[in-house]
Amino acid sequence: MDTWAATAAGAYTLTENSLYTTEAFGDYLDHLTDNGVLTITRWTFDGLRLVSLAQEACARRGLDAAQHLAVVHTRNFITLILKRSRFTDSEVRKLQRAADDLGVAALYAPGAAEPKVAEPQEMLRLGTSIGDYRGLILAEDRARFLADYPFDVEATTDDRPFYFHDTRLRKLHFLPVLGTV
What we know:
alpha+beta; 181 residues
């Protein structure tokens, strides 16, 4: 169970969360049937770490995450869709049709074109982009992307289970933009 009820003041940002670790994502993948899917919906500004977690869990199983995940965006939310098997062309077309019918954007699906999406204002204020989802998934050097990213969105682990702690000390120049200094 995941809730934002206790995080309104940021009080539990540094609380451990074993739902969002590489090991947990590995368990999720291992428990899926071949055609089963895992979906997780998060706020757009904190969902990029979900991609990182899916990538790491897939990599540990010898899977190319770019063929096993999709990301859909609506308003302030993203939904990560992770499959144990590769997405088929037919499934990608079906996902795109559903996204179009619902008025949401498929930010990434294997082989699908990049959509034209308006940037949510909170992303722009943070100095990040909604295109970062696709950028991370397709990065030739994932480690470099993660190291250069303004926030720590690297996959969390059971030994480092702080999903919501993404502040990099070297990037604290963002705080005045957020109105917290």
